[in-house]
Amino acid sequence: MDYNLLVGIVGMVCILVAFVLDEFNKRFDQDTYFYNVLNILGAGLLLYYGLTLKGWPFVILNAIWVIAAAVKVVKIALKR
């Protein structure tokens, strides 16, 4: 299997796991570290994958996703 494809698949799984847990687990939502860390990891990996493909819309989407999740992690940290 191509390394870049594997990176893309792992990134996709991270984001999908965060989404599914948010939908079906009451203790897991957008205000938890784990949710946002999964999104940062997943979007970061998909950002790398998009860069390797030169898929600029995909790169922009995931760059914004990483930034948004990182900002959320900082807000969560500041609340504590």
Describe the structure.
By secondary structure, this protein is mainly alpha-helical. The protein has one domain (3-79). The protein is built from three helices and no strands. It has helices at residues 3-24, 33-53, 56-79. The model has no long low-confidence stretch (mean pLDDT 96).
User: What is the C-alpha radius of gyration, as a whole number of Å?
Assistant: 13 Å
Helix content: over 70%
Q: What is the residue-mean pLDDT, rounded to a whole number?
A: 96
* General form: globular
Question: Could you list the spans in which at least 5 consecutive residues all have pLDDT below 50?
Answer: none
Structural class: mainly alpha
The SSE order reads HHH
**Oligomeric state of the chains present here:** single chain
> In angstroms, what separates the terminal alpha carbons?
43 Å
How many structural domains does the protein architecture include?
1
For the sheet with most strands, the description reads: none
β-strand number: 0
- Strand proportion, as a percent range, falls in under 5%
Q: Count the helices. How many?
A: 3
Defining traits:
mainly alpha; single chain; 80 residues; globular; 3 helices
Summarize the structure.
By secondary structure, this protein is an all-alpha fold.
What's the SSE blueprint?
Layout: H1 3-24, H2 33-53, H3 56-79
